[in-house]
Design brief:
Blueprint: E1 2-4, H1 5-12, H2 16-25, E2 35-37, H3 38-47, E3 51-56, E4 59-63, E5 75-76, E6 80-85, H4 91-100, H5 103-107, E7 117-121, E8 127-131, H6 136-144, E9 152-158, H7 165-177, E10 181-186, H8 195-204, E11 218-220, H9 229-243, E12 246-247, E13 254-263, E14 267-276, E15 279-280, E16 284-287, E17 290-298, E18 304-305, E19 307-308, E20 313-319, E21 328-332, H10 335-355, H11 361-364, E22 373-381, H12 384-395, E23 402-411, H13 416-425, E24 429-432, H14 438-447, E25 451-454, H15 457-472
Parallel strand pairs: 6-8, 6-9, 9-10, 10-11, 22-23, 22-24, 24-25
Antiparallel strand pairs: 1-2, 3-4, 5-12, 7-8, 13-14, 13-21, 14-20, 15-19, 16-17, 16-21, 17-18, 17-20
The structure holds guanosine-5'-diphosphate.
């Protein structure tokens, strides 16, 4: 598959002339309108320091990468946290309590602005950013769109209720994303709280907390009585130090739209989480398929700010249209360039809607090409016994060369949440005596997730064997 130099330049948000120059240096004199093959395109992309994300063999998408900045430009940045857990276990209460505990917000008189994320300052002046939309749907939806904004997940489990279906989903979504987790055992003020039971239940899902000899930090909290919030924040701080999070603040800003709306008075608004560089008033940008110039920025305390650096969420005024959550936000050199990139992205979006390649075997493996070969799967079954037998049978197929990776296994029909998880990881969904609900089907059609239905286990393992063998190629 080939791509024109101009197209590639657009996707990379680089100048076409720079690509032509680079190609010339590589011994390939071509013009903007000429096409180059995929290998050359990839070489160029790497040359310019971007990440390659293979969506399929014929499609290269440029994502935000964290590694095209020279090591000496990298500076520590604060962590970005998402809170997940079962409904009513206290996600919202915890977000509110943490926000209320922020020393800076307290000083400002407690006037807060809900922009979709906020930052708290710890007594030692270090900061932590929290995404305000709790739950794994938003998290996985973002990831499905290639936006990995979360550094750390806080899993909330109510001590009086224990692990529930959405807790387990959250665990699996977090693991699939490879994001470290901290467990907040909430509602310890309740007389019926059983924190130790929570730890034991977590063990069954391979979340081994420190008290059980593992390395997942766990903190007993009460969001209601604001107990141990400082300990929870310290745990996040510690985890962040282990991660050594860094970004180059001295470059054009790049980030992700985490929330957007149309305001009657102020026009289209977007909250952007800056991931590298520093966004300044006056900067020209592209946000998804819309473009604009930063007219003003408002932080989570409702204050106008002139700049925002890595890990800082800010509300941006000055967009031409309302972008979507998960859209990449990129500062570019000038307005003509912004319009060009925005128009190009719109074209890509339109095309994707009509002709996106399905997430199927052909491209599923490609997306994992850099790591060990894996067959990722989401498995849903009608009864627990079948689910165990299936998981066991599938896991037994793993070899040294290729592994079956069950991202999530659950009892019940296929839901929207299963589809977003599968879509984000390029996995097909196995329905054993179960079918997707209407919403799941709708989302699957949009994200091109493949369903496979079985009612006999060996038919399923036969298919999986074939898929794995096909990937490894013929035996010699
Ligand atoms: P979410 O659905 O996970 O966002 O949960 P909420 O934050 O809405 O909390 C659900 C219910 O649990 C609410 O009635 C809260 O008041 C209550 N709740 C949350 N945290 C605590 C806690 O630490 N202790 C007690 N006793 N109740 C809590």
């Amino acid at each position: 598959e080939a791509i024109t130099v101009a197209d590639l330049a657009n996707r990379m948000a680089e100048r076409g002339a720079d690509l032509v120059k680079a190609l010339f240096k590589m011994g390939m004199p071509v013009t903007l309108t000429q096409t180059i093959d995929q290998d050359t395109a990839e070489l160029l992309v790497t040359e310019f320091g971007h990440n390659i994300k293979r969506v399929s063999e014929s499609d290269i998408e440029i994502g935000i990468s964290g590694d095209d900045d020279a090591p000496e430009t990298m500076q520590p940045r604060s962590p970005v946290v998402t809170i997940m857990g079962h409904v009513d276990h206290g996600k919202t209460s915890l977000l509110d309590a943490i926000r209320g505990a922020d020393v800076v917000a307290g000083e400002a008189g407690g006037i807060t602005q809900h922009i979709g994320a906020y930052q708290v300052t710890l007594p030692d002046k270090s900061k932590i950013s929290f995404l305000d939309t709790p739950g794994h749907e938003a998290f996985t939806e973002m990831r499905a769109r290639g936006a990995n904004v979360t550094d750390i997940v806080i899993l909330v489990v109510a001590a009086d209720d224990g692990l529930k279906p959405q807790t387990i989903e959250a665990i699996n979504h977090t693991k699939a994303a490879g994001v470290p987790m901290i467990v907040a055992i909430n509602k310890i003020d309740k007389p019926e709280a059983k924190p130790q039971k929570v730890r034991e239940e977590l063990l069954q899902h391979e979340v081994i907390v420190e008290q059980m000899g593992g390395d997942v930090q766990d903190v007993e909290v009460s969001a209601m009585q604001k107990t141990n919030l400082d300990k929870l924040l310290e745990a996040v701080h510690l985890q962040a130090e282990i991660l050594e999070l860094k970004a180059n603040p001295d470059r054009n800003a790049e980030g992700t739209v985490i929330e957007s709306k149309l305001d009657k008075g102020r026009g289209p608004l977007a909250t952007v989480l800056i991931q590298r560089g520093t966004l300044k008033v006056g900067d020209v940008f592209v946000a998804g398929a819309s473009s604009g110039k930063v007219r003003a920025m408002i932080d989570d305390k409702g204050k106008q700010v002139k700049e925002a650096g890595p890990s800082v969420p800010v509300e941006v005024l000055g967009l031409s249209a309302v972008p979507s959550a998960g859209d990449p936000f990129t500062v570019v050199d000038n307005e003509a360039r912004a319009r060009e990139v925005a128009a190009y992205r719109q074209g890509v979006l339109d095309k994707q809607r009509t002709t996106a390649a399905p997430v199927s075997l052909e491209n599923m493996f490609a997306s994992h090409a850099s790591t060990t070969k894996e067959l990722p799967l989401v498995v849903k079954a009608d009864v627990h016994g079948s689910l165990e037998a299936i998981s066991h049978a599938l896991n037994r197929l793993s070899t040294d060369e290729i592994k079956v990776r069950i991202l999530h296994a659950g009892v019940g029909g296929i839901t929207e949440s299963d589809v977003t998880l599968a879509g984000a990881s390029g996995a097909p969904i196995i329905g054993f005596n179960v079918r997707p609900n209407a919403k799941a089907r709708e989302v699957a059609a949009r994200s091109n997730v493949e369903f496979r239905y079985y009612d006999v286990i060996y038919h399923l393992t036969d298919w999986a064997k074939g898929a794995m063998a096909g990937e490894l190629g013929p035996e010699i």
